[in-house]
């Protein structure tokens, strides 16, 4: 069965996908179906409680980071300014997928409208790319702090910090809209079932009955650019950072310098490791179950762990959190 989607005409159902499709008013189709993590009825209460708890921990943890940074004047520095924006992006990234999945588990409904699917995909790519761009900006901040400490306050001035955050947002928005444009041009699909708990653009392309080789090339090229450039920036920054740290004569000096980068490196490895695995895995050897597990890691687990990674390894954040909690208490 083939499904045709068109914005100006009704939606039609077709038995096959010939080179020329003549519209026939057979069956109206206006939504996709998400398979979710499991169809087992006994697992639904467990999944509901688990992901609701993880979502609340993610939102609360990242919100505490934002409130602690904004309320403590000692943390009004470029590094913590970027960290608070990363926390906001993580809240948006998680909120794009998890509330919908929780509602689906509770209502036993896996349907999502076509426009809802495009909207979810757009926001998912926007906040996901924003995460990657901000991690790159934070790597540049560590490079300037360690390699050019005497000029740090001059280079990382408030105007540059604001510009870097805005640049990250607009690059992410461009990436999101390019993906949205490519997917919105698809007119017919082989199936309406997506093997995930959110609308994955690569799966939508795989379900298209028309030739999507050009779209695939464009999408993976855009994804490679939006992924390769930030990763290159992070590698270059840390190459310079490590080279500079190794020239420090004292062991304590080396440890102190490395400790300022440990949290950021942990988050980079966790985020990019799973994201690249999903991206390459779907292109080389599609496996819905493996893709779904990796998707859970980078859409839920990584944003949830970020506040713990930064707060547990950072004395300033821990002190600011305690002061904030004491004031509110």
Automatic annotation (TrEMBL):
Annotated transmembrane regions: 46-67, 79-98, 118-140, 152-174, 217-239, 260-280, 292-312
Keyword Protein biosynthesis among UniProt keywords: no
Membrane topology (UniProt): Multi-pass membrane protein
Keywords: Cell membrane, G-protein coupled receptor, Membrane, Olfaction, Receptor, Sensory transduction, Transducer, Transmembrane, Transmembrane helix
InterPro entries per record: GPCR_Rhodpsn, GPCR_Rhodpsn_7TM, Olfact_rcpt
Coiled coil: none
Principal subcellular localisation of the protein: membrane
GO molecular function, one term: olfactory receptor activity
Domain G-protein coupled receptors family 1 profile residue range list: 61-310
GO cellular component, one term: plasma membrane
Location(s) in or outside the cell: Cell membrane; Membrane
Top-level taxon: Eukaryota
PANTHER family named among the record's database cross-references: OLFACTORY RECEPTOR (PTHR48001)
Family: Belongs to the G-protein coupled receptor 1 family.
Function: Putative odorant or sperm cell receptor.
Record protein name field: Olfactory receptor
Organism: Neomonachus schauinslandi
Origin organism lineage: Eukaryota, Metazoa, Chordata, Craniata, Vertebrata
């Amino acid at each position: 069965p083939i499904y045709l989607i068109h914005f100006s005409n009704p939606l039609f159902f077709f038995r096959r996908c010939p080179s020329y499709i003549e519209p026939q008013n057979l069956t109206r189709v206006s939504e996709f179906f998400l398979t979710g993590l499991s169809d087992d009825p006994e697992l639904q209460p467990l999944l509901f409680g688990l992901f609701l708890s993880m979502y609340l921990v993610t939102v609360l943890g990242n919100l505490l980071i934002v409130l602690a940074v904004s309320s403590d004047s000692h943390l009004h520095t470029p590094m913590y300014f970027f960290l608070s924006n990363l926390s906001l992006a993580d809240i948006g990234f998680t909120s794009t997928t998890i509330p919908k999945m929780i509602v689906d588990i509770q209502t036993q409904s896996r349907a999502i409208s076509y426009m809802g699917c495009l909207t979810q995909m757009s926001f998912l790519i926007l906040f996901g790319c924003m995460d990657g761009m901000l991690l790159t900006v934070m790597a540049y901040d560590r490079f300037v702090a360690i390699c050019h400490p005497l000029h740090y306050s001059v280079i990382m001035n408030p105007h540059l910090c604001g510009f870097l955050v805005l640049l990250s947002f607009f690059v992410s928005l461009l990436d999101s809209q390019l993906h949205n444009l490519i997917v919105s041009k698809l007119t017919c699909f082989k199936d309406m079932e997506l093997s995930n708990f959110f609308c994955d653009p690569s799966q939508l392309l795989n379900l298209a009955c028309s030739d999507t080789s050009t779209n695939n090339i464009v999408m993976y090229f855009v994804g490679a650019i939006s992924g390769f450039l930030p990763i290159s920036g992070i590698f270059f920054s840390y190459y310079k950072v490590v080279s500079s740290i190794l020239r420090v004569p004292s062991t304590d000096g080396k440890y102190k310098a490395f400790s300022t980068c440990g949290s950021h490196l942990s988050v980079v490895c966790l985020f990019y490791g799973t994201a690249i695995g999903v991206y390459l895995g779907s292109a080389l050897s599609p496996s819905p179950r493996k893709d779904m597990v990796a998707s859970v890691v980078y859409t839920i687990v990584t944003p949830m762990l970020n506040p713990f990674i930064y707060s547990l390894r950072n004395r300033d954040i821990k002190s600011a959190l305690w002061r904030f909690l004491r004031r509110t208490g």
